[in-house]
Amino acid sequence: MKFSSINRSTHRWASIAIAIPFLIILVTGILLLLKKEVEYIQPASEKGAFKQPSISFEQVLNIAKTVKHAEIDSWQAVDRLDVRPNKGIIKIRAKSHWEIQIDATTGEILKTAFRRSDIIEQLHDASYWQDKANLWFTLPIAIVLAIISVSGIILFFLPYYRRSKNKKRIQALTLPAFKD
After folding, report:
1. What is the pLDDT of residue 155?
2. Does 122 reside within a domain?
């Protein structure tokens, strides 16, 4: 088989093999780029009354327990706390993907919203299905994408190279015209 035939075949079949996973990575990547602009993806941060946090973690947990749809009954139901002193808020992210924003001084609930950006990120890096999926799923896709890119560049420039080579061969075969 010729190199160009193998290259074209590899390019075609590798493209088909990664089309759907690559589209998932591409679309979720676009959504993650827009997460600060689109509140549906990630809730915008509110501002607290003061910039000095003064409530205790126990108070934070008790406030979070009052938000029923967040399903927080203990610290085990909390994914993480995000303390933002410059905004005067504490964000509580529940494992149920709900976010509760409270004033870091008064303890007032400023906002509760479902946080979709975490799910989108898990789809993006394939950890939605398994924690180590980025090694056995996303890494091979990246390698195949690199192969497709190189083979695509070769497929693009190969006709130009051949034309140039043929032009030089024809010029070498043509005898120069003699002038009188």
Report:
1. 84
2. no
Q: Which strand (E) or helix (H) includes residue 36?
A: none
Q: What is the rounded CA–CA span in Å between residue 32 and residue 38? A: 10
User: 156: which residues sit within 8 A by CB, 6+ positions away?
Assistant: none
List b or e across 44-69, with b for residues whose CB sees 16 or more CB atoms inside 10 angstroms: ebbebeeeebebeeeebbebbeebee
Tally of domains within the chain = 2
Four-point Cα dihedral 90, 123, 75, 52, nearest 10: -10
Instruction: Characterise 107 by phi-psi region: left (phi > 0), alpha (psi -120 to 50), beta (else).
Output: left
How many whole angstroms separate alpha carbon 116 and alpha carbon 35?
9
- Residue 59: DSSP 8-state: H
State the average pLDDT for the chain: 87
Question: Looking at the structure, do residues 58 and 90 belong to the same domain, yes or no?
Answer: yes
Q: What is the pLDDT of residue 178?
A: 58
Closest to 90 in 3D by CA, of 117, 74, 108, 116:
108
* Strand, coil or helix: 91: strand
Give the residue ranges of the chain where pLDDT is below 70.
1, 175-180
Q: What is the domain range of residue 67?
A: 43-115
